[in-house]
Amino acid sequence: IAVGAGASGALNMWWDADIDAEMARTAGRPIPQGHVPAPEAAGFGLILSGLSVALLALASNYMAAFWLAFTIFFYVVVYSMWLKRSTPQNIVIGGAAGALPPVVAWAAVTGTAPVEAWILFAIIFLWTPPHFWALALYRESDYARAGVPMMPNVAGEASTKKQIFAYAVLLVLAGLAPFAAGFGGYAYLSISSAFGAGLLMMAWRVLKSAPRAKEEAKQLFAFSILYLFALFAALLAEDIWTLYARA
Q1: In whole angstroms, what separates CA 31 from the centre of its chain?
Q2: Residues 142 and 194 in one domain
Q3: In this model, does residue 70 exceed pLDDT 80?
Q4: Are residues 30 and 119 in the same domain?
Q5: Residue at 105 is within a domain
Q6: In the Cβ-directed half-sphere of 68, how many Cα atoms lie within 13 Å?
Q7: How far apart are CA 99 and CA 178, in angstroms?
Q8: Within this chain, do residues 54 and 176 fall inside the same structural domain, yes or no?
Q9: Range of the domain at 121
Q10: Are residues 90 and 149 in the same domain?
């Protein structure tokens, strides 16, 4: 799965090398800097893609391999080559690719993709818009210069801030779903609730921030990473504790 993620990243950077060179955030990447020739990056990404899917099929099962292949295809072709430069909903629809790894992993371990895996998918899917639109708010000039139609550049700051808050509310509710579904315990519920409250507070600050203010959006972007890490770390820690207690 990690090899497949690396393959997707390599192919994305190959395809986006032209706009990466225009953006301060990405101008230091290997292809714009001339450290890696674009054809070599494309070949490397394609080889890794094939190897990752084949290895997962051989080491685990065909269902996991299918979902990994679909994830790579969706990220590279549907998101990078099509959606990213054509619609401000690019990261909403394209966010499905970033949300699929839990489904791939669950299928790799169990050979199934049950509702629990799709709950984790939903959490990451709903996390993507407030995370990346917060980035787009404080990097608005970067995306404008590169011609990428991110939501702030198309719909404006006010609309983007409202959508960020709406998605943050949905995300926090989805973050409680593992407990409601029975695979997250009370420790998870406490962590999800605490970090969810923090996320909503920061999203509210973004909503009420002054036009062109960057600091609130930057803080939300950073905290959203911590939020997602905390939720998945809590689930993992609870599972490890349960296994230890049963031993």
Answers
A1: 23
A2: yes
A3: yes
A4: no
A5: no
A6: 28
A7: 16
A8: no
A9: 114-247
A10: no
Note whether residue 106 is domain-resident: no
* Structure tokens given for 201: 């507070």
Average pLDDT (34-45) is: 97
Could you identify the residue written with the tokens 């790579």? 72
Specify if 176 maps to a domain. yes
Beta strand segments in 50-117, E: none
Our separate counts of H helices and E strands in the chain read 13, 0
Cα gap 58→65, rounded to integer Å: 9
Residues of 63-97 as b/e, b for ≥16 C-beta within 10 angstroms? bbbbbbbbbbebbbebbbeebbeeebebbbbbbbb
Q: Measured between alpha carbons, how far is residue 174 from residues 6, 184, 228 in Å? A: 28, 12, 12
Structural domains of the chain, count: 2
Based on the fold, state whether residues 90 and 119 are members of the same structural domain. Answer: no
Instruction: Note whether 57 and 140 are same-domain residues.
Output: no
User: Both 92 and 124 in a single domain?
Assistant: no
Q: Residue 8: how many CB atoms within 10 A of its CB?
A: 25
Give the C-alpha distances (Å, rounded to integers) separating 89 from 66, 74, 85, 96, 158. Answer: 26, 15, 10, 12, 16
Q: Are 153 and 144 in contact (CB under 8 A)?
A: yes
State pLDDT tens for residues 192-247.
Answer: 999 999 999 999 999 999 998 899 999 999 999 999 999 999 999 999 998 888 87
Instruction: Please check whether residue 137 is in contact with residue 152, taking contact to mean a CB–CB distance below 8 angstroms.
Output: yes
The answer to whether residue 123 sits within a structural domain is: yes
| First-to-final CA distance of the chain | 29
Do 22 and 82 sit in the same domain of this protein? yes
* pLDDT tens digits, one per residue of 114-155: 999 999 999 999 999 999 999 999 999 999 999 999 999 999
Structure tokens at 211: 């036009």
